[in-house]
Amino acid sequence: MTEPRAGAAHTGGRTERVVGIGAGAKELATEDMILNIGPQHPSTHGVLRLRLVVDGERIVSAEPIIGYMHRGAEKLFEVRDYRQIIVLANRHDWLSAFANELGVVLAVERMLGMEVPVRAVWARTLLAELNRVLNHLMFLGSYPLELGAITPIFYAFREREMLQAVMEEISGGRMHYMFNRVGGLKEDLPYGWLDRVSRTVGDVRGRLSDIENLIYGNEIFLARTRGVGVLDRETIMQYGVSGPIARASGVDLDLRRDEPYLAYAELPVKVATRSAGDCHARFEVLLDQVKDSLDLADACVERLRSLPPGPINQRLPKVLKVPEGHTYAWTENPLGLNGYYLVSRGEKTPWRLKLRSASYNNIQVLREMLPGHLIADMVAILGSMFFVVGDIDK
């Protein structure tokens, strides 16, 4: 007969406890368990890994481990000219490709002292807001899915397909548009395109209530999100969290209003905020921002209709060289602050192009948010952080 036994062995700084079968096991104190979520896991939106220390079902500590998707984009920028960089820059957040392109061209145009044609400025603003709606609809549909609500994602994807149709018509791409150019846009707007945008924006606005009614009246969704994953203002400021996540905790910051670029200085930009800072508040802010972006898109369409015919871009030399110097251009991307720090030594390629992505900062704050919550709540919190893994592992 085998006697009950209990022992501990130290291997590589970790303690492995072997417990035999018998009454002696009951006398041993419970120990924390290390649990890895990811890097391939349905709740992590891609190859993100979370290293959790749990006590039973409750999280004691959390560490986001990144780098599984690192593509070295910043080093690739250094060996591409300023036209080629755009194709790389629009891919780190594949839900916000047009917005990613903007930061690069704005930085280069500032260094060149180049003035962009007014039609290009307003068209860029319109496309940026349509891209913002596309981004937010993805999360508005996928977040309830992670909590067990299947229907909203079908509604969200229906609206996304309508918007993607007008984006594809003008650029030829469904996700990676490559429509920005230094000095403006690739080409002028197709005939009748503004009318199709107006109809699509109206249709999407009219159907948002379907998603709203499905979610806000769902008792399970409310129970899983209210009071869960509360993020306070002080933590946001320490970690540099931005975008809808920050505004859901009362941080009233939006570059479109506070440091206007493109045509935002002439538009009535509304900034949706909440004070609760929980998962439900983040979802509410996202839905409000969709409504506001649709209003901005309508305003851009009306302005473009009133503008006289004119150029959509500036003529560039065959070899584009940027004067020696440095600048920082940042934009209010759908997921938060996106910035490019450009350093030039007068060549056709940047000496350095540093990317400040929104998702990188937003995901680091999980180490502060997750401890004290149940593992089941981790899924709700993670889904409400609205990140793209490529935007973390840039």
From TrEMBL:
Cross-referenced SUPFAM superfamilies: HydB/Nqo4-like
Reaction(s) catalyzed by this protein? a quinone + NADH + 5 H(+)(in) = a quinol + NAD(+) + 4 H(+)(out)
Q: What's the EC number here?
A: 7.1.1.-
Identification of the protein by name: NADH-quinone oxidoreductase subunit D
Record GO cellular component, one term: plasma membrane
Q: Which gene encodes it?
A: nuoD
**What keywords does the record list, in alphabetical order?**
Cell membrane, Membrane, NAD, Quinone, Translocase, Transport
Q: Name one GO molecular function term.
A: NAD binding
Q: Where in the cell is it found?
A: Cell membrane
Alphabetical list of Pfam families matching this protein: Complex1_49kDa
Instruction: Give the protein family.
Output: Belongs to the complex I 49 kDa subunit family.
Which purpose does this protein serve, as stated in its record? NDH-1 shuttles electrons from NADH, via FMN and iron-sulfur (Fe-S) centers, to quinones in the respiratory chain. The immediate electron acceptor for the enzyme in this species is believed to be a menaquinone. Couples the redox reaction to proton translocation (for every two electrons transferred, four hydrogen ions are translocated across the cytoplasmic membrane), and thus conserves the redox energy in a proton gradient.
Read off the Gene3D superfamilies from this record. Answer: Cytochrome-c3 Hydrogenase, chain B
Q: Provide the assembly information.
A: NDH-1 is composed of 14 different subunits. Subunits NuoB, C, D, E, F, and G constitute the peripheral sector of the complex.
Please state every residue range assigned to the domain named NADH-quinone oxidoreductase subunit D: 147-317, 320-394
User: Topology in the membrane?
Assistant: Peripheral membrane protein
